[in-house]
Design brief:
Elements: E1 2-5, E2 14-17, E3 27-37, H1 39-46, E4 64-72, E5 84-88, E6 100-104, E7 108-110, H2 117-122, H3 124-137, E8 148-152, H4 159-169, E9 172-177, H5 182-187, E10 192-195, E11 208-213, E12 226-234, H6 239-245, E13 254-257, H7 264-275, E14 283-288, H8 292-300, E15 307-311
Parallel strand pairs: 8-9, 8-11, 9-10, 11-12, 12-13, 14-15
Antiparallel strand pairs: 1-2, 3-4, 3-6, 3-15, 4-5, 5-7
């Protein structure tokens, strides 16, 4: 089968021919139709995450995919050949950037009938990160939310889904983005947008119960924007977030990292929102499998609006 692969950290991405894998217990072999790019893919490949997210080399990168079941291992027979499925692959070694991928049943979910492959591939990692950040780390209820929520990076892969999830729950949503993306983010449900390039962009804003930071960096500048008992969570937690967490025991304003826990149940929650017309994936750009390196360049630019997709089939 065709697959994109790198043989060393910071090495070249090459299109190679590798054996088609065979599913073992609780695994399903999926023919990949569409995959999506996430920053973790190229960050892992660079070697910068090797201490916390090492990969087994050579590595076929990528975690998000949508496709069709072709075979099931023992204990996975409820996933039948021909079933359309999607997932954020578990583990640390990816595998989505190939014609076929092994998927664990704990992270695999049947696609809703009305869902297309692009939506199904773009939703898992970014959608679950947004959902777990808002619901689990910031305590936002999924129904009847009354919180004022600030989404930093509201037009990005995680951010544009977070805007919709928070809005569907009933929260009042303010999104930080460039002026050029303000209309899109408003169309996704944000009641207010903030142009981060404007002079003193946050002056005069009422305090927020929740800040979900989808850009990352120092949480310090965002804490004054919180209510006295507000919650800040970063989907790109770095050392400054981890350091500030040490003060959670003695401060009312809490700082938490969003550490994705891929699971089928949360993906099903996202599927339900999509079926109800409350969640859609905005596509920034599309690439073919052999152009994965170009897709990574686009992701590294930090200018992607929504999701970057890779057509495999």
């Amino acid at each position: 089968m065709r697959a994109m692969q790198y043989k060393s950290y910071a090495g070249a991405l090459d299109l190679v021919d590798v054996p088609k894998p065979t599913p073992s217990a609780n695994q399903v072999l999926v023919q990949v139709h569409v995959a999506s790019v996430n920053p973790v893919d190229w960050k892992q490949a660079s070697g910068k995450l090797r201490l916390v997210m090492p990969v087994k080399l050579p590595c076929v990168p990528g975690y998000d995919l949508a496709g069709v079941v072709v075979a099931a291992g023992p204990g996975a027979q409820h996933f039948t050949p021909g079933m359309r499925v999607h997932t954020r692959l578990g583990g640390l070694n990816g595998g989505a950037s190939a014609e076929f991928a092994l998927c664990g049943t704990d992270t695999l979910t049947p696609m809703p009938e009305s869902m297309d492959y692009e939506t199904a591939a773009g939703l898992p990692l970014a959608g679950m990160t947004a959902l777990q950040g808002l619901r689990d780390q910031c305590g936002m209820p999924m129904l009847g939310a009354t919180e004022r929520v600030l989404i930093v990076g509201g037009s990005g892969g995680v951010g544009h889904l977070a805007v919709q999830i928070a809005r569907s729950a009933g929260a009042h949503v303010t999104a930080v983005c460039s002026a050029g993306n303000a209309q899109l983010v408003s169309d996704l449900g944000a009641q207010q947008t903030v142009d981060y390039r404007a002079p003193s962009p946050y002056a005069g804003l009422p305090p927020f119960d929740i800040v979900l930071d989808c850009v990352g960096g120092d949480p310090g500048p965002w804490l004054p924007l919180l209510t006295p008992n507000g919650r800040y969570a970063s989907t790109v937690p770095g050392p400054l977030v981890m350091a500030r967490m040490l003060l959670n025991a003695v401060t009312a304003r809490k700082v938490r990292p969003v550490l994705l826990k891929s699971n089928a149940a949360d993906l099903a929650v996202l599927d339900g929102l999509a079926q109800a017309g409350k969640l859609r994936v905005v596509v920034d750009s599309r690439f073919t499998l052999d152009k994965l390196a170009d897709a990574w360049v686009r992701s590294r630019s930090g200018r992607a609006v929504g999701k970057i997709l890779v057509s495999v089939l």
